[in-house]
Amino acid sequence: MTVSLLQRILQEREEMHPAERRVAAFVSASPSEVLHMSMARLSETCSVSDPTIMRFCRRFGFDGYQEFKLHLAQSLVPSAPFAYEQIIPDDSIDNIVRKTCRNSLNAIQRLAEDLVPEQVAEAARVLQAASWIGIYAAGISEVNALDAEHKFQRLGLRCQALLGRQRQWMHAERAKPGEVALIFSQSGHTKQMVEVAIAARARGARVVSIAAGESPLARVTDAMVAVLPYDRTELMTPLASRLNHHLVTNMLVTAIAISSGSQFPDQLPALDNWLTDKI
User: Fold this and answer.
1) 185, 137 Cβ separation under 8 angstroms
2) Structural domains in the chain?
3) Backbone angles phi, psi at 25, to 5 degrees
4) Are the CB atoms for 120 and 256 separated by under 8 Å?
5) Which one, out of 4, 129, 165, 222, has a CA that is 20 to 30 A from the CA of 78?
6) Pairing mode of beta strands 179-185, 159-162
7) Which residues form a coiled coil (predicted)?
């Protein structure tokens, strides 16, 4: 598998001098923003000189800053939608294990390249400010709703996973200002979820969606965490898509925990009624 420019920057960052390391840190964190910045603006943002930017570009084999930005843009658009290895009836158990793990790793790598951190931050702020969170999903995304309910409750947030069309409509149509509807949808095209978002917003609630960007659901959402869907998601990659939605939930929980002053934001305490006797 070809190593992208962003991956190379991350791999070589620790070998750089402090000034170049600051450039690497900013480019890694905000690659889309860098595409719209002049060299002078990037130098100012990273508190380095223009020659430092040029050395940074040449480290990766580019003659200048514009050539570097061109390849950076290409690294943000993977050459294939998703590196997926089809499991076939003749596969051995070794191949099943290997392909399942590799497909999951590829999905996580794709998420790391595509996800916009600012979207996660905004969604976390909206969720943290909510008086109550209704968590909506349909079909295979229901497991993501249950996972989010479990984790948000452990964080101390008032929330409930709402599954089933009738139950979802009952809550969406009675939504109140201050409440948030958190919606999981792999495609962002599920009619039921779009209608739930519209109904909740009409009652004054805000909507946070974890779904495909540029989708019908995205257009009726207040805070969007765009997770790129894979081609033929329903047929081939439900595990990969579900895994990435789980990871976004973990990111939101951790961001809220940090904002709340948690000393160990990625280690949530168990609620008393979940403690079990151990043998």
Assistant:
1) yes
2) 5-75 (1.10.10.10), 116-259 (3.40.50.10490)
3) -65, -45
4) no
5) 222
6) unpaired
7) none
Give first-to-last CA distance, the chain, whole Å: 45
Residue 217 tokens read as 């659901």
Give the HSE-up count for residue 65: Cα atoms under 13 Å, Cβ half-sphere.
17
pLDDT tens, residue by residue, 240-257: 778 899 999 999 999 999
Question: Of 101, 131, 112, which is closest to residue 239 (Cα–Cα)?
Answer: 101
Tokens representing residue 233 in the block: 């998601």
Burial string for 220-242 (b: 16+ CB within 10 Å, else e) reads bbbbbbbbbbbeebeebbbebbb
- 188 phi/psi in degrees, rounded to 5: 75, 10
Query: Which positions ≥6 away from 234 have C-beta within 8 Å?
Result: 186, 187
Residue with tokens 């959402």: 221
Give the model confidence (pLDDT) of 196-207 as tens digits. 999 999 999 999
